User: What shape does this take?
Amino acid sequence: MFLHKNIRLLMAGIALFAMFYYVVQKRTQTINEILGESEFHHPIKQMVKTPDPALKDKDKLGEMPLSAPSLDNQETEKSDTKAIANNIPKNSGGPSVFPGHVMFEIKMGDWAVSYGDVLLGKISSQNPIHSGQFKPPSPRLWPSAEIPYVIDQDYPYKELVEDVIAYFHEMTPIRFVKPTDQKDGLIFKLADEHCYSYLGRVGGYQPIFLSEECRGPQIIHEILHALGFIHEQSRVDRDQYLKIIWEEIKPGYELQFTEVPPAFMISVLGSPFDYNSIMLYSSNAFSKDPSIAVMKSLTKKEIQPNRDGLSKVDRQRLYKLYGK
Assistant: This one.
């Protein structure tokens, strides 16, 4: 009886180990499926969070305050963006936006986000606003092509970011460097959802939030936001190049196709519309029916955004803004 009891315990232990191994393997497989195959992505060998050398301990973050401007005391207009979006008449020009303003929604708890992935700042938990319009300051470029960056200790895919950094070094004048005594820079942080970045330099160590679904091309896209680049379909002159088919856009996503204030055009001023930019949405992005386009070209050029990296015009703009 004693022998039989020991055998039962042994069998139970083997079963538990097999179950644990399956869960670990399934988790790793799921994350690899999310990240997909990309020229910027190294297959995940281990789920270990690698500390960044520039952040040897948590106290190091005290020297690099996370930039998160508050919108509570700034000029905001409360509005129900869902109601506005759902009442857009067919063939209209999209949501109505006050001059110089942008529309925003609250994401990740208390962050005001415009155009789907552009951070504006934080709203206090006491502020009941969920959406509205905000008049942001004009975006600022970085003073030089040398930009400090750190990777937060809690972000587990350090090699993914480093691959993108190396790509920028190879293809552009931008040089990302480890911080010394600089007060401004970028910090890559893990997000629970989606990918987010500020537009241009805001001061302090501004976050680029990356969830597990953000792969190399998405990281490039968010870095370009941080360098001052807007979505191509939001240019103030986009109606010369694109037709937005508002009635085919999923309700609630119309805000991602609104035009930027003229001051936001700092990164594209003087350059042609780029149908291949990594900052351009695909023709069926956020469509009610993926087989139906929400944007159509008004020229002979097709909407073919580059999903492998920067387009030729993307690189030309970087050299124009940050080249020596």
